[in-house]
């Protein structure tokens, strides 16, 4: 009997941890939050834990993911976006998301129109 499915699952989990870690580092640095500050705000006793997460060595519990996203002022899903998406495109996508989640929906039409126009000009 082979453990190939288990090995594949472990590789996939590691790949997800690596992607998550890269995104966490990107958004943490963008928010100008140190590893030490983030670790303290997340309740980690050791600041090295953030380094381990950012390097894909370990994952992060769901409640900590949600809190980290709140601290970094991003939606949690931004930390799981596929690895091959360039940061610039990810930030553009998050701009769309922010517009669509605003409570004042009267601004959606004009905001979306200007975002689309801006993206079309960049093609």
Main pleated-sheet profile: none
Question: What is the CATH superfamily classification of the largest domain?
Answer: lambda repressor-like DNA-binding domains
Mean of all residue-level pLDDT scores: 82
Helicity range: 55-70%
Question: What is the strand and helix layout of this fold?
Answer:
Blueprint: H1 4-30, H2 35-42, H3 48-54, H4 62-72, H5 87-100, H6 108-121
Helix pairs in contact: 2-3, 5-6
Explain what you see:
- This protein has 6 helices and no strands.
- The protein has 2 domains: 82 residues, lambda repressor-like DNA-binding domains (434 Repressor (Amino-terminal Domain)); 39 residues.
- Helix content is 66%, strand content 0%.
Question: In a nutshell, what does this entry contain?
Answer:
The chain is mostly helical and 123 residues long. It contains six helices and no strands. Helices cover 66% and strands 0% of the residues.
Q: What attributes does this structure have?
A:
single chain, 123 residues, mainly alpha, 434 Repressor (Amino-terminal Domain), 2 domains, 0% strand
């Amino acid at each position: 009997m082979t453990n190939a499915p288990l090995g594949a699952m472990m590789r996939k989990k590691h790949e997800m941890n690596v992607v998550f870690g890269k995104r966490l580092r990107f958004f943490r640095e963008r928010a100008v939050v140190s590893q030490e500050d983030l670790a303290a705000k997340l309740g980690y006793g050791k600041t090295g834990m953030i380094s381990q997460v950012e390097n894909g060595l370990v994952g992060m519990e769901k409640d900590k993911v949600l809190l980290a996203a709140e601290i970094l002022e991003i939606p949690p899903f931004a930390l799981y976006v596929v690895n091959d998406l360039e940061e610039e495109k990810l930030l553009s996508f998050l701009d769309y998301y922010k517009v669509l989640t605003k409570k004042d929906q009267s601004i959606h039409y004009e905001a979306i129109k200007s975002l689309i126009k801006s993206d079309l000009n960049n093609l």
